[in-house]
Structures are given as structure tokens and as C-alpha cells.
Amino acid sequence: MKDALIPSALPEEKKASVLVKGERVINFPLENINTFLTNSIKTCKYNCLTFLPKNMFEQFSKSANVYFLIIAILQSVPQISVTGGIPNILLPLSFVLTVSAIKDLLEDIKRSKSDKEENMRPILKRVNGQWATVRWSEIRVSDIIKVQKNDFFPSDILLLQCSDPKGMAYIETKNLDGETNLKHKLASKETQTYFKNEASYDSYTGTVKCEDPNSIIYQFNGVISFKNISIPVSNEQFLLRGSSLKNTDWIVGLVIYTGHQTKIMLNSASARKKTSRLEGQMNNQIIYIFLMQLALCAACSIYYSYWYYHNRKVTDIYLELVTSGESSDPVYQFVMQFFTWLLIFTNFVPISLLVTLEMVRFMQASLISKDLKIYYESDDIPAGVQSSNLNEELGQVNYIFSDKTGTLTRNVMEFKKMSIKGMKFGENGHLDSDKKLPHVDFIDPNFDPTNYEFSDFIVHLAVCHTIITEEKDGVIEYKASSPDELALVNAARFFGFKFISRDSDQNLIIDVSGTEVRVAILNIIEFSSDRKRMTVVIRLPNGMHRVLCKGADSILLPRLRGGPYIEETYKHLEEFACEGLRTLVLAQKDLTENEYKNWNLQYIAAMKDILNREKRVAEVSEYIERDLELVGATAIEDRLQEKVPEAIKSLREAGIKIWVLTGDKIETAINIGFSCNLLSNSMTRIIIEKSSTQEVKEELEQGLVLTRDTSTGDYALIISGESLLRAAKPELAPILVKLTDYCRVVLCCRVSPQQKADIVKLVRLSKPHSITLAIGDGANDVNMITAAHVGIGLAGLEGSQAVRASDYSIGQFSYLQRLLFIHGRECYRRNATLICFNFYKNVLLVIPLLYYGMFSAFSGQLLYNMWTYQLFNIMFCAMPIVVYAVLDIQIPHSELQSNPEFYRLGLHGKLFSTSIFWFWVLEAFVQGLIIVLMSIFTICMTSGDKYYGQMDNMYVASKLIFGLVVFLVNIKVITFSYSHYWFSILISLLSTLSYIGFTVLLNDYLPIYTWLDNYDSRGSSVKLLKNPNTYSAIVICFFIGFMIHPIYKAILTIRSIRKLHRTKVANEPSSSSSSSDSEEKDPEIVVPEIDISKWEITPDKEKWKNKHTGFAFSGEAGHAPQVTDPEYYL
Amino acid sequence: MDAEKSNKPGNSALKQQKLKSWSFKMSKIVLGFFYIFCGSFFLIIGSVIVSESNSVIEHKLRYDNVDACKADWKTRPLCTIKLELDEKMPSPVFVYYEITNMYQNHRRYNKNRDIKQLMGKTQSKNDIDSYCDPVKTMGDLGLIVNNYYLNAKSVANPCGLMAKTFFNDTYTINPITSGIAEVKISFDELAWETDKDEKFKNNDNMHLQWTDVENQHFMVWMSTAGLPTFKKLWGKIKHDLPKGQYAITIQNNYDISDFDGEKAIIVSTTSGLGGKMSFLGILCLIVGGISFLGGSAVVGLGFYLKKIKGISID
């Protein structure tokens, strides 16, 4: 180790284990039954009584809803009310609240159903010397329960005894982490024997001391004491709720944690809510719109106060403003008028926007998950959407942070090459599929597996692993937690050493050319990401003990005793790494009986130390994992997923920066980089791998100087995890960010899960205008996925943790292209338009009232019927935009998919900005003006009746104004839609007709009531329809209102043509401006001064281009068969 | 794989977004032609509206500033003005009055009535309080009450500012040199059907009312005008008015002097599109013209660029 790593580099789990302080002490039988929680769970938020208050409280914690509630209160104040004291904003508000509440209720019913189902499940519990069937919810801490084969564990329980005489039980944790392999659990020997007789459960008294409930899944430490003896218990005896019993007839266990204190429940805390950038921008605009509303209210009120002051006397004859004795104080008038206008302008803030957006996103999400083109047939994985409120974010991604293994590659390992005793075996070709074993793709006619020389190697492959087997229909299936091990064991099988199973004594049964051989496994020291190696101790038939160890070269090579072939093997390892293969070194050592016994005592002591077990086991294992003898090296290929290079190419052409974050070594990463099109030979690679701050700084500066010279083409930055720790420090981070700006590709190697997240955060922080996307498949990507703006989980072999933490999940990396290019881009485009349109339609609805103020002394005349006004957003103009936002297609999907240029639209945020937003608002202002002038002058200036000569009143004009607003709004959707369906046009038509129908019904057929507000406007809608001028007004209003935009566009076109023409004349070849778009530069980043002269001579391109080689290793801790107490089997 | 358990999405057109759709994409040239078409359309409509409007014969006579009516109008309200027709006005001929600068659409004014009372229901003082303030009692109306049922403290019926300020000028038209004996002005079709049928009903006990709400002049007045300058129908002449001179005798009661208003009487015929209105027709002509020229320019430029310079503008 060089200088000390900062704590954040430690794996998350370790940090957490330090955090659990408290201790739970369970005496049993329990004196007080209420000491602990019951086992019933309740994930639903509401019940019949609490639903309404709770849900309303939640909804009214949104500021928009509070705003509308205040409006409702103001509406019921008669002095200022424009609706006759009727708070009719409650109509759309309650509609919006109801829609949200129904959504919440449905979700909650679903939860409550599953709660009920869970709580009602039966389980056997020891009651009065008998096994009684009780419900899960009736289980309490310290109960003794019996779980049968294939049943789920009702709570977190301590394994006391199981049907297997040795105490071995198998469990499946599919529901917990998605892994389908079976895991071992082992009852402690003492409990297993003590409880042989069932009656002993009933007389049993004792204590369990363990950790307080905590969320760390793979950790449990405790002591169970009875009859004056204490037995340490650990994760090996700990069965989690959510997992199920397999291959074991029954187990008996002691309930430790119940209900909401079980680990799975503690883990299901809801993730932080992510909000899309578009939504953030939208919220800003809401504030501006609201400010504009206040300003307009103030302006109108000031005008009225002025008018009032000057005209109150002269108009007294009919308004009696003076006579009535009302206060003539202008301030009083201003305040009253201000609130009146506030009520009139209420709809500037679109009441239905959030609900519409939510509905639309939900439907968009279901279309994403229904897309057959991103459905992964071979694993039956459709795309999944966990948080649909990020749909539009997918269309604006600037940075992609990708994991490598399992994300870019298949995570299906195939044994490809090996090196034994200085000899390299394995050719590059592929094996015929009929000869092929799964996970083996080895060809070499020169290799003779029966040669005695190689037997050590093959035995090592067959023995040193943690795989367990399951027999299904006579076929042996290997269940492995690490795909690398699967490849190795299958390779052994390929060479004639077929691993059949483990027997109950943990002997491995291996079929060597027809004869079964048993190998006694004494100890297994698991793989962990810190140790980067695993070790197995076996007893040889001759009584000797042998240590078999495999691991990463960097770890194992220093532990070798020294020997003849190390040099050659190292060379082979380099070659393997260059080809992008994952390498492992195998080593072994023999121990004498005594040596082993001494060591084993220490090992057992270490295992019994509950608090420091991991640390002590690591120390003890160091003792036997040294002076090893080299056995050989293996090379495993992890093939790229389909179409990864193409997808990466397209994504990069779209202007997205791709960073690969991997745990692999630099060399492996570089090779993968080449094979998936990230790197090319024309690129200059800047490699930063030093491990002291000063050196890293120098390397960074050197790189920065190098990139000044733009003539040499593209640059790629490759940085190791250790260097990154330093480079990400505050003083160096600006240089790093600057350097990455110049590099087309960034590869980060040897990074820990926490570092992955840190890198994402670094970019988020230094590039506040960028959107980051993280994609990964494993538990180690979870941090990164939650840290990024958008997290994508790849549903793959490594369990479902990444998927559950993610916002979207897909089956293949290449689907990302379609997800972004088609769904993301289109959702961004449509949702941006949806938001603008929602403001547009509300401004267009409200603004005629402002203009009409000019004709009514800004007295606060509410021109519209108040119910019609409130139905606008939930009936007349609600649906067409929803259809648009879900189904509109601007460019055929095939073109969107194949042409990355189209993605830049969202990348540069071209569809939603303050200026675009206000252009929409401006359009509404202009159209509103046209509508008001047209309607008022057409209707109120003269009679529209040939035979009766009757004049139309204000209400007829108001019907026309409102009708034109509805008409224009519904037509507007059609004008900006790119694709029209029969039903979309029908819905637009019906929406418009619904207004006519409603207004005719209200004004001519419904009886007259004060609260309906239909007295004054009685007959006005029919009058309007009978007036011939109405139709001319509609047509011309429509024409003027909508033809402004095309004219404006035509002018732009002509200008651009003239420009083009001029450039052609000047004979300048027009450069493709879009592709040379420069990256946004952030002025906030201050790059420290760099002394260029210091580096002027240094850049030695050849040095950077040197090919490096390296090695890889993967695996996961926690799945070894739990053979920690070898004495037990003796 | 278990077919039932497969997560494979369905292959329907909706789910795969393959529904049949159209898009109206127009090339710039086609758009130009579209503008020419629309322009022509509006030019035609505009011409029709203008010619219809021009066929209307309308005479507007302002009388509040005429000497005969101005002097001592409060004590001697009767005055006469002259109407000269240089062509025949075919029936029906409508008589309107016009008032300017009066905000009937002021928020305080047009809601100042009690709708139940107008619909014939007897309302108590409390009932009308929130609607008719400050004109709630007969006293508030400032009327000299001669009906013995009514006194200054009883509920005003109809109440409210709007009713109180009911327009009460009246007109009679007498032919002078036109060859007809008299001009009959009828008042039976002034208000809307809905006004007569639903909105205005006299109380069963007519004595409670200070005026007849079923009077169509009242109904017309109560129908809020949309602009501060408004005209309202006052009468209908169901026979032709031949060419010649007429004398209009005005009962000049209504006070508009405080707010600088003007009063006028309008005698007008109608066309197929109603009364005289140049605004809409002229607007159509202007818009049509601009659209036609704009469209022609786009088409012309498009062809020019395409043919001569080889540049496509799409």
C-alpha cells in the first residue's frame, strides 16, 4: 500500500457494520410479550379512517394546492368575489385532488392487499408442546417456529435445528437480491444436538444477545446462551425474511427480528425522489408566471383606483359610488380591486398541469415498458420504468457512466486460455457448438488433459470454488455466485474432472473419468473485494493438507515462493490481458498435519470472535496464503453484448460523453475500450495511474498541456482508482474536469462502488447544466445509479439490486440507444411542449379578461360564466394534449434510432428555455388580443339579426370569446402535432363541441339558478350561433391567430436561404456547424495556474501510446459454503 | 419458458406505437399556394360583408347637443329634430338609441339586480341585500311614490342600480313630406324570446312594483351592453319609410350630462348579416390582401430560386 486510502474507498458494508452500536437482548421465554414489535407488517399508508385526512395533508403540502385553496377562500369573500361568493375553483381543485387521491388509493390498496396476504400466511409455531398453525402476523420475537421445504421465512430467524443431521440448510434469496443460486446455512452444532428431542423446545430457557435491528443484509452477529454455555452465532445461522427454504425438509428457528424490524423491511426505505430538469425549469416558470400575475393585478388595480378617483363623482348618477357611502380611500379601493383581479387571474397558474403531466408520464412509461424492440427475448426481460417522472430526462443526457462487466459485456464467462508451467494453451478460434460445454470455449490440440503434469492445475480448477449443485431431472446444475467460477469448474469438467456435488460432510465428489473421487474440504476462506483471492484447504488422501488459492495476479504473485515459471507466466498473463481476457492466478501449498492443526485452532478462534471476525480471519488467512507455489494461470473471456460497439458509436455521435467505470485493471479496460469502439488507435491516451497527490497533479497537468495541441486528434483519459482518489480532491478536481472536457473518452479503472458514485457527483457538481446517466447491473453500481440524474439498471445475471435502485431497467446495453434516442427524445419533446402548452392555454384563457378590462374600466368584470371558466381545464381543453403527449411521433422511429443528430435537440435543451416559454406566453397574449377585439367589435357594435334587429349583449360576446379560446387551443394542438390519428382529431373535435354543448345546455336548457350563474347570459349562446357574423369572426380569428407563426418561419427560411446564398457566392464550403458544437464551458470552474513551460518538452506521444497490459478478477463475497467449523465434521 | 408467465409485451399497434397516422407536412411552395387560396377566400368574404354592410341605410342623429333639446331640458323635456331620407328605407326599419361613455359593464353595475325578484318572486329586504345594494328601497330609487301600497321604506321592486337607471327617453316619428300618413313604431319584438319567457315576470301583486318589468324597453335595458358606447333597440317600424322629411319628437328625460355622455337616435334597416358594420368586412379585405400578397411572394420566390438559382427552399 502506498499512501493511505481515504475512508470512502472502503466498501459500504464495512462502514455500516461499525455503525451498529446497540444490542438486543432476548430472554426467553419472554416475560413481557410486548417488548418487541409483532410480526405483522403494514406498508400501506392509510386505512379507511385516516385516508382522507392523511392524503389531504399530503396533497396540501404541495404549494400549488395551497394556492388554489387560498383562492377558494378569497372567492367566498363577497366584497371581492367575482363568482357571487361561490368558491367554484373547488370544482377543478377537487377534480385534481380526486385524481391524485384515487391514484394514491389504488396504490395503497395494492399494498394493503399484499400486506394482508403476507400477514395471513400460515406458519408452524411451538405452542404448549405442539406445533400449531398460526398466522405470520401472530409471530413474536422469541417464538420457536418450524418452516417447511419451499416455504418462506416469516421473519428474521435464528436457525436452531434442521432436518439435515449435519445442520445444513439451503435457502434461496431470489426475493432479496434476485440471485437464484442456493446458499448454505448451517445450524450450530450445539443447538442441532441439543434440540434433537422436540420436547426440549418447551423446557428451554436462555438468552440471545445480538445486534439491534439494522439494515445490513449480510451481517448478523450474536451469542445464544443456555445451560451456562454460550454459542456464537452469525450470518450462517441467520435466515432472512423474504428468502425461502430449498432442498431441506424443514428447519426450526428462533424468531429474532419481526415485522418492520426485519432486514428486508429496513432495506425497503424509499429512495430519494428525483426530479427532472424540465420539471425544475417548469417550477421556475410557475414562479415567474405568478409574479406576472401579481404585477398585472397591481396594474389593473392601480388603473381602477385612478379611474375611480376621477370618475366616482361623474358616474354617481348610475354607479352611486359616492352616494352609497363606500370608503373612497384609493388604498382601500386598490386592495379590494387587487384581490378581485387576483381571483379573475387565478388560472394563470395552470391548475391541471401537474396532474396532466403525471398522467402523461405514466402512459409514456407504460409505452416504454411495452416496447418490443427493447424487450430482451432470451431472458424474458421487458424494459421497466421505476420512476416515470424522469421520462423527459432521458432525452437530455450529456454524460453516460457505464459499468463494464455485465453492462457492456455479457457477464457470461468462457474459459478461453491458460498457462501451465510456462506453457500457454488455447487458441483464438471458437469451439463448435456441439462439442461445447457451457462457459468453455477452449481449443488447443496440443493440450493433453490426461498428462500427469497438468493434473494439479485441473484439480485446482475442480476443487477451489464455492459452487454448489442441484440435480434437476438427472442433469447436474451448477449454482455459482461468480460467473468466473462457473467457467473454471466447467473447464475442469471439460478436461475430465467433473464436479458432481458436495456430500453432507462437505466432501466434494468429483467424477474423474468414470470413478467418483471424494475430496475433503476443510476450510474455505471466502473471496472478498478486499482480499481479491479465495482459499480452500483440503485433505489429501495421503493425510497431507493442501492449501489451494486463486486470485488476482497483483495479489498472488507477491505471495509466491519463487520458482521456475513465474517470468513466463507473467508474460502470458500480460498477453491474456491484452486480448481483454480476465485472468486469474492459481497457486497452492502443502501443509503438514501439525501445521494445519495449529493454524486451524487460530482460525476457529478467529471465527468465534463476533465483533472482529472479518478482520481476524483475514489476519489468520494471511498465514497460510504465503510461500505459495505457482500452479498456473487462467484466462476467461467475457464477451461483449450484442451491438455494444454500434450503440456506443451512435451515442457518442449524438454528443453524449461516455465514461466507463470499472473495477478492472487499466489494461483490461483499455482492451475492452478498443473492442467496443470507445478507443481507437488514432487516439492519444492519457494514462494517470500514480498514487501520490503530487504525481497525479503532474500527470494531470502534463495531460492538459498535451491536449492543447489539438492537431493530433482525439484524446482518451484513462485513470486508475487510486489516482482518482487524489485527482478528485478539491484542489485537483478542476484540472481533472478540464482535462475530461478535452477527452472524448474517459475510462476509470479499479474504482470502488463508492468511488463510482463520487465520480458521478463530481461531474454533477462541476457541470451543473449537464444531465448524467449511470448504467450498471450489479450491487456495486447501486451507489452510482442513485447518484446520477437518471439511473439505469441492467437486468442481468448479477441479481436485481441495481434494477431495484434504478429509475429504468433494460435487458441489454444496446437498448439504451433506443431508450434515449426514441423514448427519451420524444418524451422530452412532447413533455416540453405539454408544459408550454399548458401555460399557453391558461394564459389564453385568462388574458381576454385583462383586455376586456379596457372596455369595462378595469372594474373586474368576470366575462365568463364561472362554471364554464372552471371546466376549461378539466373538460374543454384537457384531452387533446394528453393524446399528443403520449402518441405524437415527430420523426419515424427508425430514423430517430439511426440518426444520432436528432438527439441533439434535447441535449442542448432546445425545446424549453425561458425564451421559448415566454414566446408561448406572448403568442397567447397576441391571440388573446385578437380574440377580444374581434369578438367585442363583431358582436357588440351592431345587430346580427336581419328580422328583429335586436342587439347582442356582453354575454354573447363572452360566449364567443370563450368559444374562440377553446377553439384555438384545441386547434393549436393539431398544429403542433406531427402525427394525427383518427381519434386524436376526434378528441379535439369532441372537446370543442363539448364546450358548445355545455354552454347551450347551461344557457338555454338548465333552469335558472343564482349559483349556476346563468340568468344574465340566458339565451346568449343560441343568439351567438344565430348571428351570421360569428362565423366570419371565427374564421378570420383562426387565420390571423395561427398564420403568424408560419409567416414568421417563412421569413426565417428566406433569411437563411439568403445567408446560404451569400456563403455559396463567397465560395466557402459550409462546415457542418452542428457537429463542431463546442462543449459548454462552465465559468465557475477555476483551473489552477499551470506552468506550461515546465511541460513544454515533455509530451512524448509514444510514451502515452505504449501498450499496457493487465489482469482482471471478479467475484462476490458471501456465498461460500459455510464450512467454518471443520472440527464439527471430524 | 412458461408461456403464461412470459413478460413479453403484446404486439398491438397501440403498444408498439404503430397506429396509422397522417401528418400534414406542407412544402413552402404549397404553403404559399395555401396562403393565396386563403387570401382569395377572405377577399371574397370581405367583399360580401362590405357590400352587405353598404346596403344598409342608417341614419344616426345625436340630439343631446341639439339646441332644441339642450335648453331647459329638465323642465321642458319635449323637443323635435328632423330626419331627412334621400332614399326609401325598406321595412323593417329599426329605431335604436345610442349612449356613449356609460359603463353598463362595470362590475358594480351589471350585477346590481335581484334575479328572483325580476322573475316575479316577492323578495324581502334581506334577500335582496347582497345583490341590490345601494338601491334597496323605494326611497333609494328617489321616486315620487304615488301608489298607496308603496312607501319609501318598502322593498324596491325591481331593485338595484340597473333598474333604477332605466333609460326613459321616448320617441315619436311624424312624416312631414314623405307621403305617408303616419309612422307606426311597434314595441312587441324588442327583447329576446328568453327575456320574455324566462327572465322577466311581473309579481303577482303588480302593486308592489314601481314599474312594469315585462315592458320590453326595460328588458332591453337590463341586457348588459358589452361596450361603454352602446346602442339598444327601441322600436321597430314594420312598413317602408319613403323618401322625404320626418320629424322626430323626443321626450328628453334621461340625464347623461354628468359623465359626458352623448345620446343619439339611430334609424336603420338591416341586411342579411344584420346591421351596418364596416369593421369586419374591411378586416377581411386587409387580411385577405396581405395573405394573398404574402403567398404570392413565397410562391414566386420559391420558383425563382428553384428555377434560376437551383436552391430548394424546403
UniProtKB/TrEMBL annotation, chain A:
Mg(2+) binds at residues 403, 405, 777, 781. InterPro entries: ATPase_P-typ_cyto_dom_N (IPR023299), ATPase_P-typ_P_site (IPR018303), ATPase_P-typ_TM_dom_sf (IPR023298), ATPase_P-typ_transduc_dom_A_sf (IPR008250), HAD-like_sf (IPR036412), HAD_sf (IPR023214), P-type_ATPase_IV (IPR006539), P-type_ATPase_N (IPR032631). One of its GO terms (molecular function) is magnesium ion binding. ATP binds at residues 403-405, 485, 527, 550, 582, 662-664, 750, 756, 780-781. Its EC number is 7.6.2.1. It is an enzyme of class 7 (translocase). GO terms for cellular component: plasma membrane. It comes from the Eukaryota. Its main location: membrane. It is a multi-pass membrane protein. Signal peptide: none annotated. GO terms for biological process: phospholipid translocation. The active site is at 403 (4-aspartylphosphate intermediate). Keywords: ATP-binding, Magnesium, Membrane, Metal-binding, Nucleotide-binding, Translocase, Transmembrane, Transmembrane helix. Its cofactor is Mg(2+). The keyword Lipid metabolism does not apply. Residues 31-86 form the P-type ATPase N-terminal domain. The keyword Translocase applies. It catalyses: ATP + H2O + phospholipidSide 1 = ADP + phosphate + phospholipidSide 2. Residues 1067-1088 are annotated as: Disordered. Belongs to the cation transport ATPase (P-type) (TC 3.A.3) family. Type IV subfamily. This is Phospholipid-transporting ATPase. It comes from Stentor coeruleus.
Automatic annotation (TrEMBL), chain B:
Pfam families: CDC50. The chain crosses the membrane at residues 29-50, 279-305. Its main location: membrane. GO terms for cellular component: endoplasmic reticulum; Golgi apparatus; plasma membrane. InterPro entries: CDC50/LEM3_fam (IPR005045). Belongs to the CDC50/LEM3 family. This is ALA-interacting subunit. It comes from Stentor coeruleus.
